[in-house]
Amino acid sequence: MTEFQRGVRMGIDVGNARVGTSLSDPDGILATPLKTLRRDSKKNSDRRVLRKLVEVNDVKEIFVGLPKTMRGGESDSTRMARDYAHALRSELDAEGNTHINIWLVDERLTTVSAHRSLHEAGVSSRNFKTMVDQVAAVNILQYSLDALKAGQTVAGYLVYESPREDSHLQETIDGPVNETENLQ
């Protein structure tokens, strides 16, 4: 994608207990908090609600945070976010929403930044749990929007239905990346 296209975009921060969401305006200028979903890995009700939010808000593109380690490596959280994005891709495809791109984007330090922002805003630490995931989702989405508007590449790749496909061909928003840049 080299030219920024108009449309609502969604940011997602996947955690063990909660999933934070954010939305952009149709012009892709500003990301705002949407909702925090309780994670339900047995019934997947969080993804059901998420798919409904995608539909109701006419989302054109989704950016899921990929929490790589500071050295760019994998962790349990990285694999969890990737699995979540692949499951969401499969579910959207099954519903006929194949036109919605899902990107896994590097989100190092977004949760740390979210905690700092909430602390600086004077939010009580006991209220952090309900807000930090949304703020992290806003950070993920705003980073992606800013990069796209500036004509830059977002550090990440497009999610295909099968995780095996991703390991062989991963794309940045502007096109293919070479094998040494793959997120593995």
From TrEMBL:
Residues 7-114 form the YqgF/RNase H-like domain. It is an enzyme of class 3 (hydrolase). Its EC number is 3.1.-.-. It is found in: Cytoplasm. One of its GO terms (biological process) is rRNA 5'-end processing. Pfam families: RuvX (PF03652). Its main location: cytoplasm. One of its GO terms (molecular function) is hydrolase activity, acting on ester bonds. Belongs to the YqgF HJR family. This is Putative pre-16S rRNA nuclease.
